[in-house]
């Protein structure tokens, strides 16, 4: 049992380190972090609560040309009035017009639907159903290059300290 616990701890630390590395590398290169074909976004507001809490990390799948969307799916899209801003909301209604689909969206916590209609071209990704609570607050700190290096140093120091603690418990007899 003790060996299994150590193996799980090492696996968890390795996954955590890999995730932070991928996020920091993507941010340094000005890209969206991608892990195993899924992109990571952090939730900035409470508009999708209680499903997606502020400060959470969500995994999304990139949109493909053959993607068929349905009502109540959660999508990430470029805001129609400012395409540099990404919004993650639920499809409230699908409008079929001129052979194309248009999407009315709404945040779960918002009392009314969004004041725009989203086109297929504005959709970036679809929520995969996987959320990591509160970790988004840490990833938000990684928004600048200098902060990326600082975060890597902090994670590295924490891993070294955990390794020393693990070493003392496992190999040093008192």
UniProtKB/TrEMBL annotation:
NCBIfam families per record: sigpep_I_arch (TIGR02228)
InterPro entries reported for this sequence: LexA/Signal_pep-like_sf (IPR036286), Peptidase_S26 (IPR019533), Peptidase_S26B (IPR001733)
Localization, UniProt: Membrane
Assigned EC number: 3.4.21.89
SUPFAM superfamilies: LexA/Signal peptidase
GO molecular function, one term: serine-type endopeptidase activity
Keywords for this protein: Hydrolase, Membrane, Transmembrane, Transmembrane helix
Source domain of life: Bacteria
UniProt-recorded name of the protein: Signal peptidase I
Membrane-spanning ranges: 149-167
